[in-house]
Design a protein that fits this description.
Order of helices and strands: HEHEEHEHEHEEHH
Low-confidence stretches: 1-21
Strand content: 5-15%
Number of domains: 1
Strand order of the largest sheet: 2-1-3-4-7-6-5
CATH superfamily: Domain of unknown function DUF4159
Shape: globular
CATH class: Alpha Beta
Mean pLDDT: 92
Radius of gyration: 17 Å
CATH topology: Rossmann fold
CATH architecture: 3-Layer(aba) Sandwich
């Protein structure tokens, strides 16, 4: 954890200041430019609205850019880069064949998602073939119920139940020892409450949930961080020192542990 804090502090000192949705969608090509690691953002259709969310573009693209950057600094993982040396980041739709070239997909604000029958079937195939999906930044009971209902159309809970991930899970010791799942709020909410609260839906989102769907062998296919916005700790790392020191070290520790586990299992 100390190493993560030191590297993240260096990142803050460099002054990276990014804004979500500030770059156009960069869709994944039919073939990846190289064989190195890359994260794909899942683009989806929203059928409802959640406060402070902007659908699939929430936390895009600098959450994955920054997380991939720190992964390359803290580990020996080779990350995919463009001609300028910046980590590649891609957007993928469930109907794109490029989906199956994405080792890890991420999605935010999933309490608004609506899958078509074809999309649900494609996501099921992707996950069963070895894909990994991490969904984050959805808050409260209504958002959870909506997401759980959509995911049940992908992987029926009678066959693939959603289970809580314990703090003794090997995933949480991949590199750093994660002793608690942090509740991280988005930076606008944090500023609005003067840094005094992290629960964006009040009592309805007090408890952070780390949940997973596993295949028959126990491999995590889908990971869910509910009642927390882990991606904001990466995306906003250079915008406010108070926000950074309160959230980014813990957010990066969890993020890197998850990536390493997903790549090796």
């Amino acid at each position: 954890m100390v190493m993560g804090a030191v590297v993240a502090a260096a990142a803050y000192a460099q002054g990276f200041r990014f804004r979500e949705g500030s770059l156009p969608a960069r869709y994944a090509p039919p073939r990846m430019p190289d064989g190195s690691f890359v994260i794909c953002r899942l683009a989806y259709r929203s059928v409802r609205v959640e406060p402070m969310g902007i659908g699939w573009q929430t936390d895009y693209p600098y959450a994955e850019i920054n997380l991939t950057t720190r992964l390359s600094e803290l580990t020996k993982t080779r990350v995919s880069r463009d001609h300028s040396g910046q980590p590649n980041y891609f957007v993928v739709r469930l109907t794109d064949d490029a989906l199956f070239n994405c080792p890890i997909t991420v999605a935010s604000d999933v309490g608004t998602v609506g899958f078509s029958p074809a999309e649900a079937e494609r996501l099921r195939l992707y996950l069963l073939k070895g894909g990994f999906l991490w969904v984050d930044d959805f808050w409260g009971t209504l958002a959870w119920r909506h997401w759980a209902g959509e995911m049940a159309r992908v992987l029926p809970p009678s066959e693939f139940p959603v289970v809580d991930v314990g703090l003794d899970d090997p995933m949480l010791r991949s590199m750093f020892e994660v002793k608690k799942v942090p509740q991280i709020t988005n930076i606008q909410f944090w500023r609005g409450v003067g840094g005094q609260s992290t629960s964006e839906r009040g009592p309805d989102s007090d408890e952070v949930h780390l949940r997973a769907i596993r295949d028959a062998r126990g491999r995590i296919m889908g990971l869910m961080t509910h009642n927390t916005d882990v991606a904001d700790s990466w995306e906003r790392e250079g915008e406010d020192p108070g926000f950074f020191y309160q959230f980014s070290p813990d957010g990066y520790a969890l993020g890197i542990d998850v990536l390493l586990h997903a790549m090796t299992h």
